[in-house]
């Protein structure tokens, strides 16, 4: 079912207002009432559309998430098809590290909204992707467990808690990957 034109306009206004608030005031300034006022829609519309702040955070992440998924599914190697599985795993984890750090505050809000908020959606896509690649590179490993183990260090709450930087995360992942592949 396609979105009505007025609903699409409201969504665009809401996301633009929310992105502006995050850019100028940080994630702490992202209140539903503030976004509603800045976008010119009612608070009820905002809650019906996004549910809560974490739903709004997910929506703000959506465009970059789609671009990242497109890159590893159909983009150029080594992130996309055409490179050996081990090289694709490394490129994927490096790309996911960059993406996580670029949107850490939004991911932290989105991934910690509930006990299982991190899982499903994008995580399931990442997990399936890594499971296939791990199976190709090292079929004797449990690919599903290995995929979870590789994704674990990129949980937004762990990255924020440890105040990890990109080079540190990538070096740690590279050492792990070197031992596995």
From TrEMBL:
<protein>
    <submittedName>
        <fullName>Transcriptional regulator, TetR family</fullName>
    </submittedName>
</protein>
<dbReference type="GO" id="GO:0000976">
    <property type="term" value="F:transcription cis-regulatory region binding"/>
</dbReference>
<feature type="DNA-binding region" description="H-T-H motif">
    <location>
        <begin position="31"/>
        <end position="50"/>
    </location>
</feature>
<dbReference type="InterPro" id="IPR050109">
    <property type="entry name" value="HTH-type_TetR-like_transc_reg"/>
</dbReference>
<dbReference type="InterPro" id="IPR009057">
    <property type="entry name" value="Homeodomain-like_sf"/>
</dbReference>
<dbReference type="GO" id="GO:0003700">
    <property type="term" value="F:DNA-binding transcription factor activity"/>
</dbReference>
<feature type="domain" description="HTH tetR-type">
    <location>
        <begin position="8"/>
        <end position="68"/>
    </location>
</feature>
<keyword id="KW-0238">DNA-binding</keyword>
<dbReference type="InterPro" id="IPR001647">
    <property type="entry name" value="HTH_TetR"/>
</dbReference>
<dbReference type="Pfam" id="PF00440">
    <property type="entry name" value="TetR_N"/>
</dbReference>
